[in-house]
Specification:
The protein is of the alpha/beta class. It contains 26 helices and 18 strands. The strands form 4 sheets. A 9-stranded mixed beta sheet has the order 3-2-1-4-5-7-6-8-11, with helices on both faces. Strands 12, 16, 17 and 18 form a 4-stranded antiparallel beta sheet that branches. The longest helix is centred in the C-terminal third of the chain and has 23 residues.
């Protein structure tokens, strides 16, 4: 067993090698459905081993006496679960293995038995029995020591995740895509909880809640509980962190249930923490509806569509507005990341009850996707204008298992300290990593303990520096203003204009006979110049005189004007019947003006010097504040941390090129000799 304890990976490999007996009887895609639940079963068995005989004896002695055995047996094990069977994996026997194993699993307390139900484990066992491998696999796993003293919880959690990555889609389709590496988990928890260490120390035994709406195997929850438990070693009395979570995939949820069954609270050792871990889609079926938490943490799947959740999300958005989770406009259905952002904010404990903080790991798209007035921008606007965004940390690339894209940790809070109110800190931690000796998929880098301390220090100090920038919350906002130019066009009837009609969709939709008839009508006007409004009256008069030309609608008039219209920069602007200047649609432009900058000042300095007749469209207004220009928010990380690199000296480049040419010439000589 020494080899099995050497490292997370070697232990998982050791477990994996015990599946060699499955080859030939099962497809590789079925291995995960066997190995993972057997690993969980053996882990629970090892935990219960010290009290197994006492539990069996107590159960026999007290059955039928009207005593709540559930309470008694949980007290006996010291955990929130138990097993009253006299069997274990080593004693199932070779002749009645299936029946005895079914009996063994059925004698687990309901909270533990649920784990195996979610794997549909009994049907798997029947298949194994028919294949004649069940007894052998049970014996293999019985030899693995998975007691917590031999394999600590964090190591065990790593093993679960390594096995899931090893099996890939066989356990849970795309599970590895969304699995959070341990170094990212640890950094997120440190950023989330570090500011409250003093609070924990000054309030011994303080009870706080930690919630993860995409909890997976429970990595964030376990790491958070370990963080506060470490304070006991430093200060004597650790705070109590009660975990809550929800997971979409049944198999991954089962792993988290097992992890929470093994967690105990010193003040309430019999409490079943697995009851707080719910199954289902958080977006469409929030199993913790109405609950608030002191700390929230999440790594929602990157770029995953929320199509299946859309009816429920749309309904909540339309009926509850800002009283619900999804008040602003909704993001595009191809990526639900920003829905989880809003969900976490809704779960923060209310400020009057001490407030809450959250850490969420996201890709770069929530920083900039969507223009002014669109769903993503409106969500950013809501978060920034309500001042819940405390910091955003840019992480190194290539730190996730299946993607090398840039990722970010958002820190959210509705209880900002005074020096952070109205401000947002951006931290560039993209170069704060150490390379891994052996890559795991796309993961080639890790955030070391030293890197973690440095990043947390930058965050804690909240000061301006090369890697840390501080901005007002509204610094990321702008008004998208529509800038118009007066229409200065006349109708010039020419062959060139007639040819241009072939590019107009409204023209090509006409029948061949209609196009020929219109061409003949235009022939009578060739070589003339007319004013802008003439085209509409001419076209309508021709159609009235000749019904074969077809109906004249706005799209056809627009096509005629596009083809025959010629701009005359020095002519007076074209006006409508009321004397209002008409805009030239071809010259319409948009300007993004930083919030706080008067539109008039911006126009004076940035637009009018280049287009003296430009003016602002006063009708283009924001839906929320009614002001001219639509408000948008975007966080461009690269802009704030960009460092100009001057081009190299031309002589230096020329020298390098000559050296390369010399090497190529030498190689060619070797080939021709």
């Amino acid at each position: 067993m020494a080899d099995a304890r050497a490292s997370n990976t070697s232990l998982a490999d050791f477990i994996w090698k015990n599946a060699d007996d499955l080859w030939g009887n099962f497809k590789h895609v079925d291995f995960g459905k066997i190995i993972l639940p057997f690993t969980l079963l053996r882990r629970l068995e090892c935990v219960l081993e010290p009290t197994r005989e006492q539990v069996v004896e107590t159960h026999k002695a007290m059955s039928g006496q009207g005593i709540d055995l559930d309470v008694v047996l949980r007290q006996t094990t010291g955990y929130s679960f138990y097993n009253t069977s006299s069997y274990d994996l080593a004693s199932l026997g070779a002749t009645r293995t299936l029946a005895n194993l079914k009996d063994y699993i059925s004698k687990f307390s309901p909270n533990a038995r649920r784990i195996f139900e979610q794997f549909d484990f009994l049907n798997t066992l029947e298949r194994m029995d028919r294949a004649g491998v069940l007894y052998k696999i049970c014996q293999n796993f019985a030899k693995i020591d998975l007691h917590p003293e031999a394999v600590p919880e964090r190591t065990m959690s790593n093993v679960y995740e390594h096995l899931i990555r090893r099996f890939g889609a066989e356990v849970n389709e795309a599970a590895e895509d969304f699995m959070t590496p341990r170094d990212v988990v640890h950094l997120s928890i440190e950023l989330l909880l570090d500011p409250d260490d003093d609070l924990f120390v000054s309030n011994p035994g303080l009870i706080r809640t930690l919630y993860d709406p995409t909890c997976g195997t429970g990595g964030f929850l376990s790491d958070g509980m370990e963080h506060v438990q470490s304070l006991q070693d430093r200060y004597g009395t650790a705070p109590v962190l009660v975990p809550y979570g929800q997971e979409l995939e049944p198999e991954t949820h089962a792993v988290c249930l097992a992890a929470m069954l093994l967690k105990t609270l010193e003040a309430d050792p019999g409490r079943d923490l697995s009851k707080n871990i719910k199954l289902g889609s958080t977006l469409s079926d929030d199993q913790h509806r109405g609950e608030k938490f002191h700390y929230c943490v999440s790594n929602p799947p990157f770029g995953k569509p929320w199509t299946l959740d859309k009816p429920a999300v749309d309904r909540e958005h339309n009926t509850q507005k800002f009283e619900g989770r999804f008040g602003p406009k909704l993001p595009r259905v191809s990526d639900g990341s920003m829905l989880f952002l809003q969900h976490l904010v809704s779960k923060l404990e209310s400020p009057e009850n001490g407030g809450g903080r959250a850490a969420i790991v996201l890709s770069g798209s929530p920083l900039f996707n969507g223009g002014a007035g669109q769903g993503e921008s409106e969500i950013r606007r809501r978060l920034l204008e309500t001042d819940v965004v405390e910091a955003i940390i840019a992480l190194p690339q290539e730190i996730f298992f299946r993607t090398g894209i840039g990722t970010y940790i958002w820190i959210l809070s509705n209880k900002k300290p005074d020096h952070r109110k109205g401000r947002v800190q951006l931290i560039d931690a993209t170069e704060m990593f150490e390379p891994m000796r052996k890559s795991e998929g796309n993961k080639r880098r890790r955030v070391s303990e030293e890197n973690t301390r440095d990043i947390v220090r930058l965050y804690s100090e909240a000061e301006e520096g090369k890697k840390s920038k501080i901005f007002d919350s509204t610094a990321f906002g702008y008004r998208r203003v529509r800038v118009l130019r007066p229409l200065r066009k006349r109708m010039v009837m020419s062959r060139e204009g007639l040819d241009k009609l072939e590019d107009e969709k409204a023209w090509t939709k006409r029948t061949e006979a209609q196009r020929a008839a219109w061409a003949a009508a235009f022939e009578t006007q060739m070589g003339t110049e007319q004013d802008w409004h003439w085209m509409e009256s001419f076209a309508k008069a021709e159609a009235k005189a000749d019904p074969s030309l077809g109906k004249v609608d706005a799209t056809l008039i627009k096509a005629f004007r596009a083809a025959f219209g010629v701009r005359f920069p020095d002519m007076d602007p074209v006006c409508d019947a009321k004397g209002n200047v008409l805009p030239d649609d071809d010259l319409t432009d948009y300007e993004n003006i930083p919030l706080g900058t008067p539109i008039e000042d911006y126009m004076e300095t940035e637009v009018l010097p280049h287009a003296h007749d430009a003016y602002v469209d006063e009708s283009y207004r924001d839906e929320t504040d009614g002001e001219v220009g639509i408000v948008g928010y975007e966080i461009n990380f690269n802009r704030y941390f960009y460092e100009y690199q001057p081009p190299r000296d031309l002589e230096e480049i020329d020298t390098e090129l000559k050296a390369v040419e010399a090497r190529i010439a030498a190689m060619l000589e070797e080939v021709t000799e």
